[in-house]
Amino acid sequence: MSRRLLAILTLTCAVAVGNVYFPQAIGPLVAAGLHLSPDAGALVVTATQAGYTAGIVLLVPLGDRFPHRPFLVTLLALTGLGLLAAGCAPALPPLVAASALVGLTTVAAQVVGPLAAGLVAADRRGAVIGTLLSGSTGGMLLARTFSGTLGESLGWRAPYLVAAALALLLAAGLAVTVPVTAPSTRRRYPALLAEPLRLLRAEPELRRSCLYQAAVFGGFSAVWTCLALLLTGPAYGLGAQAVGVLALVGAGTMLCTPVAGRLVDRVGPDPVNLVCMLGVLVSAAVLAAGSLGGTAGLVALTLGTLLLDVAMQCGMVANQARVYALRPDARGRLNTAYMTCAYLGGSAGSWLGVRVWGAAGWRGVCALVALLTAVALTRHLRDHRRQGSARKRATRAVPGAVRPPGPGAATTVSGVSTPPHRSQVIVGTTGAPQPVCTSRSGGPWSAR
Asked: How far from each other are the two terminal CA atoms of the chain, in whole angstroms?
């Protein structure tokens, strides 16, 4: 893949993902402009994320069925029209409907990911995924800043109209730059829709990645949905522009995801996931201090949101690298299953966050983040213990065998060093070679 193509695909991810997140910064402006309660503005965010989840389920599998270029152009054109409708909506019901349409069609980033994964070698896949996610992160964070600043100056409709123009311009650009690709399957649409469920049942590593991302992204969405309520409420009394400025601090995440991708290529996804989950727990504790208000509270919110953004996005790099490595001929459907679970978690997090905010305030929202992350961390530690037990059993099964290495370690057999994550030969007491294969995460499975 050329650098030019990677840059164009990264920009596509930024624009498409930004459409999901910029309403978070203007929720209070929407509510004020339409003469609604502050909580009603959160319905626009929830509708967009719910539509995005539906788009992943209904449209992303078609990325395995149709050539990528016309499919991407169509998606972005429809997104632009939906944004125009949202910007012209006279009341909340049509705005919510248009927001759901925008979410449904702005799934181009989820089509770009499988496309890019198929255009690069396996040892570069993590780095490319990290670069694409840096674009998604940039779109997510900068879109909040853009919408908050523009909405404060020109009203809540302006961000929708500008976003519509960007989507339509990008659709025209993709029509002449994306290479021609052949579909990886000829299955009919109903079979494509059913395939992600079958993959979820068949692939335990897919289920694990889905749980990790749904839990962490749920907490992430709860924070950013309620952050506008905190900053514009009595504790701070700031405008919607403050939400955008705070989001801009998290732009440093764009520099971290490519590094996380290279780290995943080197040591595997599990260690990266562990560090990221611990980072989310720390961020929840730091964010809780934001309820203090004043300068100390703003510092806590700045540091906490930065750490939360970095941990969530780097964990996503690890999860997607694990998912894309499972079945190369079904990456679109694997990504559908993964992202559906992730955004169901995000939608649930937004919904729960607003209700926890009403019942327990900002500290309750931070406790929700910690609780959701603890669920994922408990599963991760349990799986790690099981993998360790499996390695010990495999070692005992071969008398005199050398303990299999962990993920990312090289093995030396008869003076020859073999790279990590490949089949290893362990010599027993009889001198006969005993083949033992290790998975990406280091867990053994019997050679057949």
From this structure: 35
Match 């408990």 to its residue by tokens.
378
How many Å apart are CA 51 and CA 26, to the nearest integer? Answer: 18
Q: Smallest Cα–Cα separation from 314: which of 129, 109, 145, 442?
A: 129
* Contact present, 16 and 102 (Cβ < 8 Å): no
* CATH architecture group of domain 3-387: Up-down Bundle (1.20)
362-420: pLDDT as tens digits? 999 999 999 999 999 999 999 888 877 766 776 666 555 555 554 444 444 444 444 44
Name the phi and psi angles at 226, rounded to 5: -90, -15
- How many residues can be counted in the chain? 448
Question: How many Å apart are CA 9 and CA 57, to the nearest integer?
Answer: 21
| CA 94/CA 116 separation, integer angstroms | 36
Helix, strand and coil content of the chain, in percent to the nearest 5, comes to 80, 5, 20
- CA torsion 125→127→128→133, rounded to 10°? 120
Q: What is the model's pTM?
A: 0.69
Is residue 20 within 8 A of residue 103, CB to CB? The reply is yes
Domain ranges in the chain? 3-387, 399-446
Neighbours of 98 (CB within 10 A): 24
CB 159 within 8 A of CB 90: no
Q: Which amino acid is at 391?
A: R
The closest of 335, 343, 347, 341 to 62, measured between CA atoms, is 335
Segments of the chain scoring below 70 in pLDDT: 240, 244, 390-391, 394-448
**d(Cα 352, Cα 292) in Å, to the nearest integer?**
22
Q: What is the pLDDT of residue 426?
A: 39
